[in-house]
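Entry 0007
Protein: Aminotransferase
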Amino acid sequence: LIIPVPYWVSYPDMALLAGGVPVYVHADASQHFKITPAQLQAAITSLTKLVVINSPSNPTGIAYSRQELEALGEVLREHPKLLIATDDMYEHILWSDEPFCNILMACPDLANRTLVLNGVSKAYSMTGWRIGYAGGPANIIKAMKKIQSQSTSNPTSISQVAAQTALEGPQECIKEMLTSFKERHDYVLERLNTMPGISCLPADGTFYLFPNIEGALESIGGVSNDLELAEYLIEQAGVALVPGYRIRPRRPCQDIHRHQHDKSAKRPRPDRKRFELRDRL
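Output (structure tokens):
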């Protein structure tokens, strides 16, 4: 299973639970956290079964363009037995100039081996309702149903009706949330990039930012890596971050944190200053 890095924390464990072996393809900030066709080609072997593409991405908020997906598709065409999973959970939380596009939209000829994964948790703020869905080749969906029927069986009927109502009803709520998320993104991004020792790329969507905090570590006594900084900030400032090592296959490091900004930015000034942490950094 090929997993681009950074990744959502559950991907590797899902692969391991299924008896698979995660293969990581690293993309750093210089690549805007997006893997290249050459990297993908180099990672594929005779043992490769599946490639995961998550765009817009958790944890970086970065989205692949149609042209970038078409380029990855050129590589995937050379390996006709390889399956593709496109995780589109943040499909509607996107504010880049380009409209949403996944690998199937960019390369429709790959439909016979592409799984589209989505849900209502993010776009409709229905995390607790536990509704996700998938579309893909009938034989694969049938196999997935066999596993689910012997594990979770099915979500409650109440959740199903609520999800149907969200998907088929008015969509103005998405626009309202997107406006708020973009406002918070811009606020947090600006504050992060004015802090000494911290740099952060803007996201294309989602409600995450993925800053590099290496330079800030030097100014905090007793803190030498991302895990220690996360512990320091939650204890001293009440600010929660996800350490970068949790979303990279490595030990605590001196570079990246994921920052989630789906909480309201319209708060009293003292609360907003907790984002800045200037006195503490």
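Curator remark: Residues 266-271, 273-281 have pLDDT under 50 and may be disordered. The beta strands are 2-5, 23-26, 50-54, 83-87, 114-119, 132-135, 208-209, 242-243, 257-260.
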